[in-house]
From TrEMBL:
It comes from Hymenobacter negativus. Pfam families: DUF4199. The chain crosses the membrane at residues 23-43, 55-72, 92-112. Keywords: Membrane, Transmembrane, Transmembrane helix. The keyword Transmembrane applies. This is DUF4199 domain-containing protein.
Amino acid sequence: MADSSLQPKLSGTDSLAGLATRLAVRAGLGVGLLGVIWTVGLQLTGNNGFGPKQIMAQMLVPLVAVANEWWLGQQLKPEKPGLGRSLKVGLLTVLIAAVVSGLGVLGLAYGAGETALARNRAEVTEIVRVQQLENSKVKQSEAQIRQQEQNVVSMTTPQGLAISTFERILLFGLVLAVPGGIFFRE
């Protein structure tokens, strides 16, 4: 039989910090994996897994972060989570989801191959050209047009797609997680 006195005893503060971390890790991994599954599903069904439909899953991250902040408050009742714990659970959820999603897109980009990346590149290039035509008030030089085309090529590499996904999720997540953490601190 194991002696329970050998087990480390957590103080109330340590277990509360552990609760916030556990909630954030679980939710961040869950919503990050859900985004990866969505992206892979798009790719497998013949859609552009790197295109605008990807944003539908990425918008779940800030909602899950806010829900996680609320859930932390429910778990701690009647005690209040406070600003630090509430922000910690929201921001950590967003960060973990962004890392998982970015790595998932990187893996998918390498797994899908150059043909999928070329198709995505063609779609993005077409969007840029249409926007240039619609915005006829601004005349762009040939150098500016070439620079935009070069930017499209660099952002549609596997690394560019992964960084873009990471940044977008982080931005979307912070927009709601920070105010949510402030609101749910009580």
